[in-house]
Amino acid sequence: MKDKIKMIVFVLVLGSILTTSLVAVDALTNPYIAANQRKKLQSGILEAAGIKFTDANIEEVFSKQVQPRDFPQSLGQPGRKYYVTSAGDVIFEYRGSGFQDEIYGTIALKADMETIKGISIVSQKETPGLGGRIGEPAFLGQFGNKKVVPELRIAGEGKASGDNEVNGMSGATMSCNAFQDLLNSELKKYIPAIKEAIKK
């Protein structure tokens, strides 16, 4: 009986120590995780807007070049922000399903709200070497100056011809299709919301 009590006490004490340790580690690491996530978002916004920065000056450049703005609560976007650069470009975050997993990034539009300034992907888990190539600069670089009306199209490799089309990549068709659908869905949702927010 005494051995059982000792075992229970030991387990309780060990559990308390481990729980306290985990809480302490969580408290210590959370600020670093939050800072890292903030820098990833800032990096994505600056990349999409074509604003040059380094790891050392990213926060300074962001604070000077980009102004975060809240969507009015009446637009049903609680906690969501969009961003306006000193050049008048408008940026918002997009997030949704890719072919394999979630794709998260930013898209910058010129002041006409119809022309893409640039696109970045902050995170994605598409198949490396195949769908994952949607994150490559050569692919994303095609989106600059493309129109989003009537909608954006990712055509077959080497088949883009319209001012709203970019070239897809062989071996990444499903990821390109999912990316196209995600971008068009987010553009249709956020462009009217941003236009309405700017008026207010």
Range of strand content: 15-25%
Span between N and C termini?
73 Å
Instruction: Please bin the fraction of helical residues.
Output: 40-55%
Average pLDDT over all residues: 86
Specify the structural class. alpha+beta
The general outline is: elongated
Instruction: Using the CA coordinates, give the radius of gyration.
Output: 22 Å
The number of E-state strands comes to 7
Largest sheet: 5 strands, antiparallel
Strand order of the largest sheet: 1-2-3-4-5
General description of the model:
This protein has 200 residues and is of the alpha+beta class. The protein has a domain at 67-199. It is built from four helices and seven strands. The chain has helices spanning 2-49, 58-65, 137-140, 173-199, and strands spanning 66-70, 81-85, 90-97, 102-109, 116-124, 153-155, 165-167. A five-stranded antiparallel sheet has the order 1-2-3-4-5, with helices on both faces. A two-stranded parallel ribbon has the order 6-7. β3 and β4 form a beta hairpin. The protein is elongated, with a radius of gyration of 22 Å. The mean pLDDT is 86.
Task: Quickly list its features.
single chain, alpha+beta, five-stranded antiparallel β-sheet, 7 strands
What is the strand and helix layout of this fold?
Elements: H1 2-49, H2 58-65, E1 66-70, E2 81-85, E3 90-97, E4 102-109, E5 116-124, H3 137-140, E6 153-155, E7 165-167, H4 173-199
Parallel strand pairs: 6-7
Antiparallel strand pairs: 1-2, 2-3, 3-4, 4-5
